[in-house]
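Database export, one record per block. Field names are fixed; values are copied verbatim from the stored entry.
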Amino acid sequence: MPLHLHTQADLEAAIAVLVAQDKRLRPILELAGMPALRRRDPGFAGLAAIICGQQLSTASAAAIWARVSAAFDPFDHEALRRARADRLGRLGLSAAKIKTLKNLAREIAAERLNLDMLANEDADAAHHSLTALHGIGPWTADVYLLFCLGHGDAWPAGDLALQEAIRIGLGLERRPTVQQMAPLAEPWRPLRGAAAHLWWSYYRATKRREGVIGVEPKANAVLNKLAVAKRSPATAKIPAAKPPGSKT
């Protein structure tokens, strides 16, 4: 049964375990401070909100989601499944996002998908269940698992702020790629979700020290373009870490 981060106490207990197991995280916690638990609504509404915000700035995503969620009472998968595409388009949704939301609504209505039950699956299995759906990529899947379901082992490997925090905190030469993020996080299983909270907090702390204000831990379109432009095929040097439970 996966561990869950439902309360601030859950998060703090998980981070205490992580810091005890991996001494590299001690200075990270000292600089970042204990992070606050971040949660979103679960179920269709929670995932729909994340989909609406894909590749948009925080302000644009919030504005579109406010219009979409206010347009339906109640807001649920049946309402979206029955809604006309042109109506959804007038609310600000792109054709691709309308297709994704409608497909998601059909999968739930046909009982081929139960979003709440994903909380009880292994994080990797739940990730694959979501990314198998049209229009749902790895970042969207992991953010839903972590913030909407409180899955303690969800690991948003594609989040650029998370990658940058690990680059700085572990002294890597380059920002790790999505593929490199998996082995980097292996020592933190089954609490990778708690580790993500800690690294995001560290990211914000380092950016405050650098005088960068208002940077969100979200891979928006601008950051994605920068990442593609700067990405190097060279492999980052990754410090060795002992597995959880071993003596350091």
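Remark 1: DSSP finds 13 helices and no strands in the chain.
Remark 2: Confidence is low (pLDDT under 50) at residues 213-248.
End of record.
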